[in-house]
Amino acid sequence: MTTQPSKTLETFDNPQHDRDFTIRIDMPEFTCLCPKTGQPDFATLHLEYVPDEKCVELKSLKLYVWSYRDEGAFHEAITNRILDDLVAATQPRFMRLTARFNVRGGVYTAVVTEHRKPGWQAPAVVQLP
User: Is residue 41 among the annotated active site residues?
Assistant: First the structure.
């Protein structure tokens, strides 16, 4: 393989740092291991964020997500850890990570975690006719 999983998240300068805009990224192939049984857990990660000065580079994000494939973690812990790492790398105005895990034992789990930069206010939603 020419690439390997990596915990390094690369960034690039936000080309419109003076404007609030939303970036949405769906990652339908997230896998980690159940910390109790060692069996694989599958999830779709939905990332939404309003960048400030930096944006996350997508190839590094793909390799970062891949790096969890052989790690055991509870859904709540891994979702919050991923958000913390993304916030540390990009320092966004706002970021929300939703992890929707596939069924396990008849139970679906969705974990939603957010970060809001101190002092940042979301712009008012515009309702069009």
Answer: yes
